[in-house]
Every structure is written in structure tokens, then in C-alpha cells.
Amino acid sequence: MLRLVLVVGALLSLASTARAQGMLDQVDLSSPAMTTAEIDRPALLEKLAAVPPGGRADLTGMRLSGLDLSGVDLSGAILRNARLNNTKLHGARLDGAILDQAWALKADFSDASLKGASLFAAQLVGARLAHADLTGARIAGDLTGSDLRGAKLDGANLSADMKNQSMGLMRAILKQAKLDGASLKGANLSRVMAEFASFRDADLSNANLASAELGGADLTGATIAGADLDNADVTSTRLLNLKGEDSARNMDRLRNATRAFRNSAIVKPLPVSEVAAGVYVFQGQNQLMSEANRGAIANVGFIVGKRAAAVIDTGGSVAEGRALLASIRQVTAVPVAYVINTHMHPDHVFGNAAFQSEKGVRFVGHHKLAAALAARREQYLAANARLIGAKLIADVRIVPPDMAVETTLELDLGERVLEVTAWPVAHTDNDVTVLDAKTGTLFAGDLVFIGHLPVIDGRLTGWLAVMDRLAKLPVKLVVPGHGPPAVPLAAALADQRRYLERLAGDLRAIIKQGGDLRQAADSAGRSERDRWSLFDEYNARNATAGFAELEWE
Amino acid sequence: MLRIAGMALGIVVGLSCGVAGAADDPWPGLQADAFASRPMVADSGVVALEAPYRAEDAAIVPMTITLKPEATPAPVRKVTVVIDRNPAPISAVFTLGEKSGISRISTRFRVNSYTTVHVVAETSDGKLHVAERSIKALGGCSAPAGKDPAEAKANMGKMKLRQFAGAGADGRREAQLMLRHPNHSGFQMDQITHYYTPAMFIRELTIRQGDDLLLKVEGGISLSEDPNIRFDFTPNGADRFTVEAADTDGHRFKGEFPVETVSQ
Q: In whole angstroms, what is the distance from residue A478 CA to residue A485 CA?
């Protein structure tokens, strides 16, 4: 009878992994099979006494519900499919016992010892396991609402059994379970379902929480040193006053990280200015990337629509990207639907990983951006490790676009449509601009530099040609890649044009006179020196690149 | 952009493509392998090398070799450029035509790390003369090919020969041969496929004046993208230059250029 019910239950729950282990709906819990015992305590003790030394008591399928077995030594006992509902096992010894498929609803295992026990597909809903010792146990059962306060689960394996999924994902279910003060050092909690569980002050040192479902859970004061939280879902999770967070792994890869409750001091928002209605810009400093400025040298920003927001460039580190996300959250609760990278350079793309956990987010870039990033990946990471330091670079992921812009692309943010335009080779071979038609604001990326010397990593003549087209756009305000947050279009291009034309003019003169590359690097564009910051860092490089280009004219 | 900054400032170190550690000097071994440990005369004045102390762009490091004919009774016939710490150190071998009168060759190299560059000139009597310079430049071999890969591919094989008046009043001239070619080093990894772009580079390039050999260049992966060679020479009265080049993939490129009248 039960067997049939189980089969039906399994069929019914195919659509839901959690329900595959939740058979309670299909079982008559008030039946004698689930509530009575077939033997009393003295008889059981007699049976246990008959087991030869070193042997195992075979109690497979026995009905032991409701008995008081407190303090009984059941070490190594085989309790497979046994009924232990409401059974008192306080202080009992169950080390190495096999409780696979056992029913122990609301059973009392408080202070019991279950070291190395096997609880595969066991039903322990509402069980009391306070201060129980489950060191090294294998638990893939349902512990919904159970009490594991102060329990010891060091090295226990509660993870999903990836080989055994015919009835859905077999894993520990800790929904609404209480694990306050529990010790889970080195425990495997990969893929556990622990929504609304409480892990207050629990010790999760070196635990594996990869892909764990922690939505609504409370980890206040928990220790997570060395723990791996890769892809763990932390929607509405309380991640407050965590200990050892610095050494926790993959904290940048949490799912729904921005929806977790965090101490506000952790991420300080970037100071942004609203340059037009709903258009925000952080102004980077005119410096080289460094640990001190955490790569925040480029202008980055975001545009907010009715339904969604778009980020334009993410900064020179994941730390900067997170701070940008924090500023978005100060302004709006709408999701970040698009992250647009204006081009490949590290000061514009190294913060991308901060946005990866945004639900449904798309990364948008020029159709040549993916290849450009791929070709430079190693060099960008190695070179910038020395500039921003090992700690900041450790979080950086090269995130290529998953929406490629061939010519133009419209992005609807809700009563606000952005137009992303891909340009021919100019500053780089993968420049895009973002136009917000509503306010006439153009994010120009590094197609426009103001104050910071323009850097040629594409084609000098191509850049000048693109500038001619930019000048004709129906745009009021331009957000340059480097320089003030926004300037009127008329004022945006003049200095850059003067520099690039001077450089090109000098180079052409040197080429015409038969001069060589070294002469070009030493002299071309020099008259512009006092008008720009970072001139000495980039001019000779620009002249070298420009010379190699223009000598083919 | 920051990558460039790192290079320009010489901050980046150790982007290796199979480079030996800084401690051991590769030159004695190279001297043995490439020149059979033949004795070399340093500071004889026969050959000199100009190169920037710090490269602006490690993928395009200009170098100029100057020969002083009056310093040796036997003329220089062959010049070998050895970039000690590059993955393939023998970077170029120039064979000078007997009547070429070449005394100056400028070209551009990829330089992979802090390295010494040796230039070895061999005279017709078999003597070797050497000059050396140190260069700070990093990541030249693995630097992604080109700022515009699409263009580099489309234009492969295009040639240009520029002609200049010589510096002196002796009727000598200068020419600059430019050849569009990505000269893939084999160290540039395609991160999508995780395969290295196979090496494909100009193996040999010959420039003649009429029927006379001016200069033959045997190249390697250390020659920069778009090989570019400038040299002086003595005109022999012929009315055209012919250029032949071959790369490691079997592509052959040919060019013919009329000798221009260049005002002094």
C-alpha cells in the first residue's frame, strides 16, 4: 500500500525537485504503521543484547514509533526504512547507524551521537537534533523545521547526490531548520535547500555552500572563513556581521547578491551626479589605474527607465562595479537589465563581474568586443595585477558580451529607449556609444577624452572620421569616457580634434621628410604637452601607433 | 589602454612566452649554437646598434644597424640580429649584396622581455664583429596582433617601396620596403578556442636593384607585423627594384618598383 502511494507521490512531484523528497502529503501519518511500535523498550534491549560483539543489529523496517529509547546504544544498527516517528532517542548512540529511508518525524535525537550515520532519503521533518553529534554523517533527507541548534555537523555531507536523481534532487532539506550555533566546519552543503533556515553564529568555516539555496536564511554572525559560496542564492538572506568573509571564496559569484541584507558599510556607493533626468555619472580620476584608486579612472554611469536600468561601463575593478551597483540601489529598485561596455579597455570592463548575479542581466557590446577581449585577456589580467594589486585583480572576470551590436541596437528600459551604436575602428576596433533619446545624452565612451590625453589603440584616421559623425548627432550632452561627467556636444570634441589633427599633421610631415619611427615617437604631438594630463604616459605610444598607420597612406 | 600604460612605463614584467630566468645569460649558448663559438671582436667600430632603452610598444621596437666600411678592409656580407631572450632569438639575418653599398639598416622587432640584443657582422674574410644594447620591453611576442585584425588580414601582401635621397652628397640613396603581413608569432592565443594562432611569418625577402642583389632578409617571428626595412645603398643605374617575399605558409609576394628620381 505504502509502496503504491510512494510511486504515485513520485509521479505527482516530477515537476518539483523539492517535493520529490516531500512525500508527507501522500502518506497517512495517523496510520498504525506510522504511529505504533511492534516491540517495547525492554524487548528491544534484549534484541540488541543478543547481537554478537562486532555485529550489527538488524532493525530494518521495524515499527518503533513513540518509544522512549533515550540513552540506548544503537551504534551500527541497521534501521533502514524503520519507523521512529516521535521516538525519544535523547542521548542515544547511533554512530555508524544506517537510517536510510527511515521515518523519524518529530523524533528526539537531542544530544544523541550519530557520527558517520547514514540518513539517505530519511524523513526527519520537525526532528529535534539539538547538540546532536552528526560529524561525518551522510544526510540527504528532509529536515524541514528540524532543530539542529548547537549540533555538530563537521565534515558531514548534506550535498545533492548527483547520481541519484530519478526521484528529483536528493539532498538535505533544511527549510526553516534551526542551526544556530551549529558547527558545520568543512561540511558539504552544496545544493542544499536551506531557505529560511537559521544559521546564526554557526561555524561554516571551509564549508562548501556552492549553489546552496539560502533565500531568506539568516547567517547573522556566522563564520564563513574559507567557505565556498559560488552561485549560492542569497535572495533576502541575512549576511550580517559575518566572520571570516575576507577568506570566503566566490563571494562575487553569489546569486542575487544585491538582494541580500548586508551591513551597509560593506559597499560604499560611488558618488554619482544626475547629469540629466534619470541619467547618472561617476567621474573617474585622470590617473593610471592603481590599488589606491581601485581602477576608478574612467567615467561610468547608468540610466534608469520605468522597468529596468542600464549600466554603461563598470569600472576598473569588481570593487568599483559593486560600488556602482550600490549607487544604483540608492536611486532605484528596478533590475539592471543591461550592462553595456563601450569598449574593451580594463578601466571600463573590469567591474563587469559585480553585475553577473543580477537576474536576467545581459552584457552588451560591439560585435568585435568578444574577440578583442579574448585576445587580450591574459595580458590585461597580468599587466593590471601589478597596477591594482593581487587582491583587487582576484575578483576580476573577463565577461564577454552576450548581445553583440552589429550596427545599432535599441534597448527598451520602459518608457525610455536607448540606442547603442557600433562604430568603425577609431579609439579601438570595438567602440560603441549609447544614446538616451529622452534627454539627448550620449555616453561616448573613449571616443571622447576631455583633459586626459586621448589614447590610440585603433586607428587615428578612423577616429577623426568617427568624430565628424559624432559632431552631427542630435545630442545635447556628451558623457566622455574620461573628463567631466557631461559637457555640451559643441564643447566636447574641440580639444581632442586639435590634438589628433596635430599628431597626424606632425606624423605626416615626418613621414614626408623621410623621418623614422624613433623621430616620430620623440617629436610628434609634443606641442600639445602642456594641455593634457597623462601626456608623457601616452603620447609616444600614440605617435608610434600613428606612424605605423600613416606611413601606409 | 592600461596595458599600454604598463608597457610604456615598464611596469609589467615577466609576461613570458618561454623565456629563461633572468639569472642565466643565454648569450654564451647562443654564440656557440649560432656561430660555432667563433671569436668575435667587440667595439671594433665595424658595426653599431641603435635601439631605444625602453620600447614604447613592445610589438614595434625600432632598431638601426650601422656599418662602418672604413673600419674593416674586408666588407661586411652578413648581419645577424640576436634578441637574446626572445623565444626564437635569431631574429633576422641580412645578407648584403656585393655591390649594394649598404651601410645602414633600420627595421622593427617584437621584444618579449628585458633583454640584450646582439648584432653580429660577418666580413668577407670570415671575421665576426659584435655590438650590443639592452632594451626594456615586454610582451612583444604574445601581444595581440594588430589593432585592427580584420584590416591586417585583408591587406596581406600589399607592398610599398619608398625612396629617399641619401644623407651625403655622394649619390647614395635610401629605400624603405614595407610589406603588409601579420607575421603571426605563434604565441598569440585565441582565448575563444584556446589555440595559439599558428605561426605564419615572412621567411625570406629579397630586394634587387636590376639584377644585383641589394639585400636579402631571412626573418623569424621576432620581426614586427607589417615588416618594414629601410636601408641606404649605392645606385647601380638600373631602372627598377624587384622584391620577392615568401612566408612559412607558402604565400609568395612579388613587387616591382621603378627607380625614382629623387632630388638631393
A: 8
